[in-house]
Amino acid sequence: MLEKSHKHITCSTCSSRNNSLLGSLCSDEIDHVNAHKSCNYFKKQQSLFLEGSFPRGVFCINQGMVKIFQRGDEGKEQIIHIAKSGEMVGFRAMFSEEPYKVAAETLEESNICFIGKDDFLNMMDSNPVLRKGIIKELSKELSDRADFITNMAQKSVRERLAFTMILLMDIYNPEPINLSREDLANFVGTATETLIRLLKDFKEEGIIEVHTRKITVLNKEKLFSLAGK
Amino acid sequence: MLEKSHKHITCSTCSSRNNSLLGSLCSDEIDHVNAHKSCNYFKKQQSLFLEGSFPRGVFCINQGMVKIFQRGDEGKEQIIHIAKSGEMVGFRAMFSEEPYKVAAETLEESNICFIGKDDFLNMMDSNPVLRKGIIKELSKELSDRADFITNMAQKSVRERLAFTMILLMDIYNPEPINLSREDLANFVGTATETLIRLLKDFKEEGIIEVHTRKITVLNKEKLFSLAGK
DNA sequence: CGAGCGATTGAAAAGACTCAACCACCGTGG
DNA sequence: CCACGGTGGTTGAGTCTTTTCAATCGCTCG
Lengths: 229, 229
Known about the structure:
Two copies of one chain form a homodimer. By secondary structure, chain A is an alpha+beta fold. Chain A contains eight helices and eleven strands.
């Protein structure tokens, strides 16, 4: 159980920061961020920002899990990405100076800090390493999304489920995958019923093990070959 | 017909530059680019770069049309984007320092300039406006791709075709859309046969007019309502 | 204990794909 | 100048995947 603290989380000792985009900050910069950011505890299924709203800064996940999604015409969610501890979310729309095209919501209780737009942009101006990191990150995500598009367009639901489970395995590692059937379906891009039937198949084929919401991958190799990679 | 020149195209008088990412360059920078870049004439269906190769710089389209695509497991292309005059292609992988995940190929004969990696990166270091432009561009494309993913996941082929035609209309404007059936199908993410049948439907419904490869949109409103926007 | 939501199953329908055949246009070479 | 071959475009029929709709189950929370 997560400590439900509204307490300040100190950047300099934040274990999630090292392998994050803010890993390159010098101690002066850290202190500055630390002094200007705010820290918040989020319950499960709480919203960070909504589609259509305007970015006022970036969110930095200290502990927890956040889904990034879009709502299609009939209100069905399409999950684009799941962010975990150490990731920053919400900076894309801030750069493009447009309202968010995606929404963000916690999947579990989380501690998440918030850095204001100006603070963050100033930091980017003065820190070339941070800047390069951000640009690199944006570029990487672009190519991830190209893969995502190609998968969606060309693969069967079964193949996409395998692919998605590989992604989720890395995200949840070493814990089992823990998502509602609906969220899982909305990530794979299929109907909930179809997803459930496929999970059953995977279970019968010995690829996964299921305990209510928790899914453990037993045969990673088979998953890879199914995903067609 | 395009002038098949291997002649140098002068940046300072390039009509495509004003509304491009390089619109912000001062005259010194322009001169520098102009002196260091190379210019090339590309035939139709000529490759700019392949999936898996390493970026050595960026391509700047003076005149012409380029498709950006990925090849799926069975070799079927998925078109991710179509770039036109004034656009730069190939810089994403350059930033992420990874091999290209996508390939680029001309759709028609084109004049395309090439700026070396070092020249370009140096320019970015010294020009904050260019830098902001690039970051903004990357962010915009990320949200475009989120839309693309949601469309792929949730819409029918018919709806996706409508959506794609709206995109293409803007790209080809004021010319009619001019793509092979296969390329069009590979953009929409469907089989060529299915695409042809839907085109026929659209034609019968008075939405489009078709002359061999050339497609003219007659009823934009209907297209919008079909696309579900 | 009952309401309600998430998960599951079944059956039917719809959408899209595959395969195979055929057409139409275009440039080439005889 | 015309027959030929090739490529891209088109059509039809059958099949399969996936969705939809409806019903049921099971658990949790008040």
